[in-house]
TrEMBL record:
<dbReference type="InterPro" id="IPR038492">
    <property type="entry name" value="GBBH-like_N_sf"/>
</dbReference>
<keyword id="KW-0479">Metal-binding</keyword>
<dbReference type="Pfam" id="PF06155">
    <property type="entry name" value="GBBH-like_N"/>
</dbReference>
<dbReference type="InterPro" id="IPR010376">
    <property type="entry name" value="GBBH-like_N"/>
</dbReference>
<keyword id="KW-0408">Iron</keyword>
<feature type="domain" description="Gamma-butyrobetaine hydroxylase-like N-terminal">
    <location>
        <begin position="11"/>
        <end position="94"/>
    </location>
</feature>
<protein>
    <recommendedName>
        <fullName>Gamma-butyrobetaine hydroxylase-like N-terminal domain-containing protein</fullName>
    </recommendedName>
</protein>
């Protein structure tokens, strides 16, 4: 069994609108704060089952204002909309980085299907 890639650098840039995470295997991903917020692993967003998952609109301009370590396996991201309950494991950050384009496209589809958009707050 091989060890999972370990983060070597986590950096906010663009005034907190993007987060870059680099791993010890050479992979590096830049993920928007918007995608990290709307795909937060928190129960508030994910619910307690797939049927409970929320689609959150109005987060186009959300920014990350703090990054806090959680043990040696994750970080907590604090957003300027006061959301700060998601625990982002290294594995989840890697997965989101690898699938960012498809995940964002799916998010846009979910917004349209539920009559929401990236600029007006709301959730369904």
């Amino acid at each position: 069994m091989t060890a999972e890639p370990w983060p070597t650098e986590i950096r906010l840039f663009d005034n907190g609108h993007n987060l870059r995470i680099s791993f010890d295997d050479g992979a590096s991903f830049t993920t928007s704060a918007e995608l990290l917020r709307v795909r937060s692993p928190s129960a508030e967003v994910q619910g307690h089952s797939p049927a409970d998952q929320k689609t959150v609109g109005g987060k186009r301009n959300v920014a990350i204002i703090a990054v806090a370590p959680v043990g040696n396996y994750a970080i907590r991201l604090d957003f300027d909309d006061l959301h700060k309950t998601g625990i982002y494991t290294w594995r989840y950050l890697r997965e989101l980085g690898e699938t960012a384009e498809a995940s964002f496209a799916a998010y846009l589809h979910e917004l349209a299907a539920k009559g929401l958009d990236r600029d007006r707050p709301g959730e369904a």
